[in-house]
Amino acid sequence: MIYWGCNPVESHMRHLSRYSARARGLFTPEGSKSRKVVAIDVRPTPTTKNADVFIQVLPGNTFEIATVLRALLKGVGLEGADEEMSVAGVPLDSWRKVADMIKSCSYGVLFFGLGVTQCRGTDVNVEQVARLVQDANLHTRFYAMAMRGHGNVNGSNQVLAWQTGYPMAVNFSRGYARFNPGEFSVMDMLARREPDAALIVATDPGAHLPLDAVRFLQSIPSIHLDPHCNMTTPWANVVIPVAPAGVAAAGTFYRMDNVALRVKKLVESAYPSDEEVLKAIKEKITHAADR
Amino acid sequence: MLRIANGHVHDPARGVRGEIVDLYIDGDRIVSGEGFSQDEIQRMETIDASGCAVMPGGVEIHSHIAGAKVNTGRIMCPEDHYEHIRTETACTRAGCGLSLPTTFLTGYLYSQLGYTTVFEAAVPPLEARHAHEELMDMPLLDKGLYTVMGNNMLVMKVLSDPDSSRRRERLRDLVSWLLRASRGYAVKVVNPGGVESWKWNNGAVDLDTPTRPFGVTSRRIITELAEVVDELGLPHPMHLHSNHLGEPGNVDTTLATMRALEGHRTHFTHLQFHSYAKTGKGRFTSGAARMAEYFNGHPEFTCDVGQIVFGKTLTMTSDAPMEFKLHQMRKGKWANCDIEMESGSGIVPIVYRPRMLVNAIQWAIGLELLLLVDNPWQIFLTTDHPNAGPFTAYPGLIRLLMDANYRQSWLDRLHPRIKRSTCLFDLTREYTLDEIAVITRAGPARTLGLQNKGHLGPGADADVAVYPLNEDRAAMFSAPRYVFKNGVMVVREGEILQSVEGRTFTVEPAGGRKLPEDLAELFAQGYTINMANYMVEDEYLPRPEVVPCK
Lengths: 291, 550
Known about the structure:
The complex is a heterodimer of chains A (291) and B (550). With 291 residues, chain A is of the alpha/beta class. Chain A folds into 2 domains: 2-146, Dimethylsulfoxide Reductase, domain 2 (3-Layer(aba) Sandwich), CATH 3.40.228; 153-290, Rossmann fold (3-Layer(aba) Sandwich), CATH 3.40.50.740. Chain A contains 12 helices and 14 strands. A 5-stranded parallel sheet of chain A has the order 3-2-1-6-7. In chain A, strands 10-11-12 form a 3-stranded parallel sheet, with no helix packed on it. A two-stranded antiparallel ribbon of chain A has the order 4-5. In chain A, α4 runs parallel beside α7. Chain A is globular. With 550 residues, chain B is of the alpha/beta class. Chain B contains 17 helices and 30 strands. In chain B, β27 and β28 form a beta hairpin. In chain B, α5 (153-159) runs antiparallel to α6 and α10 runs parallel beside α12 (357-372).
């Protein structure tokens, strides 16, 4: 198992015990004893402390690391390389050991996080990491899995994909769906100051977006649906408190590996669910349009 | 009451062969026209179908339209969608996609071809909730899904029992439980044993290769599942994608598989992909003639063809090792997923080119099968959407079957050496409209065990397609004049008039209420979810219809 640019011990609390490093499987009854864990990160974290091998790398070298590992897996010579060479501040020999571990395991998984996806090169890094895993499959079974952020962010990706064809950054302004990350993603839209109103559902831009983007959002009318008081609540023009999903509202939750699960309503809430609120808003808009 | 008058009715299930007969619809059912007075008939709403062929609504027996792998394909290939856009209308939603249309658009596109019933071809139980969610967003169609079982760990565990009678009884119970858990309609088997073998990093399997971890063979998986499907009286026979899909010489494996299943009802899916022969020098060639000869002697079997359509598409199947091989050849995008204890799946984009010899032979094999299998009730028109091509190509394929001159004209467009590998251009058979009605609706409905589909007799669902007669059969079948779904006119002159919701077909076979203790223990050890969260809830089937077992 490789954790690369992610720290699930702190970000995905039950990941190690339930799904990865320490999980007991049908053919790995001893849990962590039956597998080797490699962590690649720019600094020590609680996840790297739990790994069998921790490789501390210099920031901004994801693409280089993946390229070198690919070359080692395929046995392709590295031009100008000698045994003294280091990649991302780590001697080539360490990478050779990682490549050997990849080749010799019977079933490997690479978990990658924001450290891979959000450093310089973004999507190019992800492609190279995916290619690395494809190459690993020439030797053994190997998987890559993105360590995603918020709960059920995959749910919105899945529903958008089957309804519009695209998982995110979808623009409906022409009456059909258009997709272009980098143009229609939230940050790009806000940077161009394009929206003139915002409907914010189950997220907290006040806490997550850069200050300039938040300032712009504050300057346009905004509606905020959230079960909690957070850093968006104080400045949103309209705040509609909703029942927390999976606690006081039932629905479908898409796990990080795309398995859909039913979440149940466990307690009553004084507030309506997100779905009820959105349906009511939609009906009022339709009614107003009909008039 | 509604009357569809003056149309040439093609209702092969009842032996009506293009005679001019009026059709009467009361609510969502077809009713007998006998006993209505002239006065009553005058007062009915009448649709004039003169100059048209009137057929039951189309029934799609094998198509990948919803669920985890379809949606992953959509996400993986936005380039499939850019040039295929529909804007919203007063009654339809916007959508996009050619080989992977969005769910709403899938409903509209099928309906605009006169199809009213569609089955999603492969869903592992763990992904069933997702597939049902997508089917809920697919209007204008009655739907169902097939539950994938051929590499299921619980199934293989049960099959490893040396006591044959206990094994059979436990398997029957387990199959029933899996169908209930996934709210599936039929038992689907994909590369039995082969997908599990690949998960262990082992090679492809033949009929008698024991597969880890339980040492069960493909032969045992298919023969015993077929027996159990018969015993449970499921409306649809075992739906089988056999071993070695796409490999030159696989016709031997497919024929051996068929011999192992003789006497059991079995549906062999996308048979084109399984009818490849090899010359003495190892060259890829057609095995369709051998396949058709065998098939013609075995009325217990049915198949669908999986006809190649030239152009870009995506291949997607639970046969993960096959997709990996394809990826090795093409080096492009590839998605793969091992589905815990149940199956695998893979996705690879592909382009079929007429000038590419292998593709041209594949194209010819599908048509050879359609023309060489004598009984149209045994072979159905599919493109294994989207694997061999999008379902929207059906009208063009119908023209190929009905017009021998047009078929011959294709010779110039194909690879120059095509004639060495196929007898297609020596075949002069032309399908009749009745035979087309069989391979696109009556036949699939019968094999699916749907009593009220695929015919226009009293009591049938009022799903009707009315096509304007036209010698250009592609034009005729691509633009029905009217389509009725449950007695409601939903398409007129190719336009969607309104969006109605269809039903989901399921089965409730005997037994299977609870997993036995040892299997429950295996479940707890192997799955990442609790059994309580496994069974698909009623919320995901807003309009279920249980089709009775025999």
